[in-house]
Amino acid sequence: MMNWAKQKLADVAGTQEPIYGPSAIQTVSEQAKTTPYTETVKTDLTWQAMDSTCVETQQFYLMAPSGHIGFAQIIYSNVAGIRTTCQFNCKIFYPKSENKPNLWSSDPLKNVDISDDKMNFYADNLAFELSEDGTTYTIKSMTNQASIVNLTVKRTAPGFQVGKDGKTYYGTDPAAPWGTMRHVFWPRNTASGTIVTKDGPVNFDGSKALFIMALQGMKPHHAAGKWSFCDFQGPNYSAVLMEFTTPPSYGSTVVNVGGIVKDGEIIYAGATNTVTHNKIKQDSENDWPEPEEVKFEWNGKTKDGKDVNGVVEGPLDARLDRVDVMAEVPAFVKSIVSAAAGTKPYIYQYSPHEHPISLKLKIGDEEITEQGELFSEATFIVAT
């Protein structure tokens, strides 16, 4: 069977892909060798709403002065052009002092309507809107009475995508890829508003926030077998990093995109970053190697050619949550993952507070150490 036919069968039936090898992936890291990053403009934030297999997301991470961490996300998913589903997810991690379980809401969306310019997303009881000047999002949701969302997120540093278009392409013919992976980042923002719970409102005024727009233009478990994610927010600097490793079908290829910014300026962005799990333990329930200590590192140059090195390193402390993805969002994932053998996605989430976390940053000869807040995830889907 021809490669494209095998891939199409895997897309529709959920079967394992054949081993194409690393030559069947053109990573954004290659683009970044000549164009480390491009600053985003408003048109980079349009919903693609593909009519073929995809998962597309817009997501916001918020760190409140009170110690609450908030998460709001829209997921648009399409299975082989046969069925499209959309979901709104909301989560609150409470500070340890409140001794409350995490709040988690996940609701299917009805009557979805994406604006003609593809900037705004609407559904029954939900509106995600981007301002005319392209610097501010408003997120309003009454899809779940347990978490009524009314938030505003304003960009304070430029957004970026790594390389020219932020995309990694999958396929044996570079001129006709059968899949893509793309990330767009707003690493540093301010947030305001509330998420109203049954116990009352959680106030996010004065929060530091991260916005990510992502597109997986193929089945998620075919695009990546595992992920690592870092969101560091300090008084003056923000650092974001996203690393994924493909399944063996694409040579277990590692792609790492990220950057370091401060208000009004990108210090560095590119694909020359690393994640190291310095200490792990086997999860007794599913046998994934759960990280206990981690090191995130950024390496590159400023626009004017100064060397940049940034490091966030330390123990992750007790995890905030372990998400069994198949159990938590069945309508979204089960329909996409189908009957794929060996697929057991889990997300491990952390925000260490027992041990202070700092960004150690060197820009040319200048050395800066800034303590801040870290939110981190390690995701395992299939063996890599």
Global Rg: 20 Å
- Biggest sheet statistics: 14 strands, antiparallel
Percent of residues in beta strands: over 45%
Give the helix tally. 5
Tell me the structural class: mainly beta
CATH H-level name... which superfamily? Answer: AttH-like domain
The CATH topology is what? AttH-like fold
CATH class: Mainly Beta
Low-confidence stretches: 1-15
Helix content: under 10%
Q: From the coordinates shown, what is the CATH architecture?
A: Beta Barrel
N/C terminus separation: 25 Å
Mean pLDDT: 90
Structural domain tally: 1
Number of strands: 27
Q: Which word captures the global form?
A: globular
Question: In words, what does this structure look like?
Answer:
The chain has 384 residues and is mainly beta. It has one domain: AttH-like domain (AttH-like fold, Beta Barrel). Helix content is 8%, strand content 53%. It has five helices and 27 strands. The protein has helices spanning 3-13, 28-32, 220-223, 325-328, 330-337, and strands spanning 25-26, 37-39, 54-63, 69-79, 83-93, 103-108, 113-114, 121-123, 126-130, 136-141, 148-155, 160-162, 167-170, 179-197, 200-203, 207-216, 226-233, 237-245, 254-262, 265-270, 273-282, 289-301, 307-315, 321-324, 346-350, 357-363, 366-380. Strands 1, 3, 4, 5, 6, 7, 8, 9, 10, 11, 13, 14, 15 and 16 form a 14-stranded antiparallel sheet that branches. Strands 17, 18, 19, 20, 21, 22, 23, 24, 25, 26 and 27 form an eleven-stranded antiparallel sheet that branches. Strand 3 (54-63) and strand 4 form a beta hairpin.
